[in-house]
């Protein structure tokens, strides 16, 4: 592999905003637009080692690395497909309504994620980010949860096809990363770790700790199912008790991360209580772990997040800044030009600093396990389910 020439590469094309289910749908593309514009206003792209590059549209060869040929064909022909046939394949529903140009828009998101993976794998860039990506619910044969094609899974499959032997995927979206887990359920070359709200209270209703992978790949699907109401300190404590140990044992060649920010307390579709500061701490941890365990090769993707003005733009700008190796100070003011643009686009007065005013200090797992704490019980369930498969110590002290 050639030596990295850029610290950060961002595949970008304004047509990524064409992935649009229409007015009133929670997955509004304005959130991606606002995030990219906020990063530009804060100077994230004003450096020689930060590059934006064109976005190729994924072809059928790429899409079929994960998706069944019949499903790809149906999505391509969706303009002529009847309602019953659309619903059979998971779109034309309330979550995934049909929109004009759906095939091209969804394939472009996949193309951006694969291009980001290519830049990292070839050494052209240390890190790469696709904010429009992270569509982790799509299954090989049907759409699900606002996701038509599964760009994280296709990017990982592409890395494997290019010779990667071990790829780790860490998903911090509030919803279980079910589609990516399903794609690699039987493949020990891919370690999938999902920290999410318990399936007992949130879509998609999967991701229990005992779901550990298929035959020959036991322990390579990892699920941390957190109770509703979990906040910064408890969430970070759970992360610290599971993720670093598994990444150290697995030693991935590439770290792929999904950064849905619907864990935020203001998110309208879920029930965790993180702040932008807690999410920023998670981003910092994943960046550090990429350098510690994946030779710095880090592919970061967007995902969910439905507080479109005050949460997604700030959290994803922190992601881009962190990936550029120039993290933003939490108290950084939001530029007035961006505030005016966001106000004009949304009719809202956004929060004017890059922090929610919280400095999370999670209790170390080494301090001991509290059996009365539901988050600690969730952590113990995950550790008991997967740590033995990796030869890891189950002790709590």
TrEMBL record:
Pathway as given in its UniProt record: Ketone degradation; acetoin degradation
Cited Pfam families: Hist_deacetyl
Region described as Disordered: 350-369
Matches recorded under InterPro entries: AcuC, HDACs, His_deacetylse_dom, His_deacetylse_dom_sf, Ureohydrolase_dom_sf
UniProt superkingdom: Bacteria
Histone deacetylase domain boundaries: 25-321
CDD domains in the cross-refs: HDAC_AcuC_like
Record key words, sorted: Acetoin catabolism
Family: Belongs to the histone deacetylase family.
Protein name, as recorded: Acetoin utilization protein AcuC
Source organism: Catenulispora subtropica
Upper taxonomic lineage: Bacteria, Bacillati, Actinomycetota, Actinomycetes, Catenulisporales
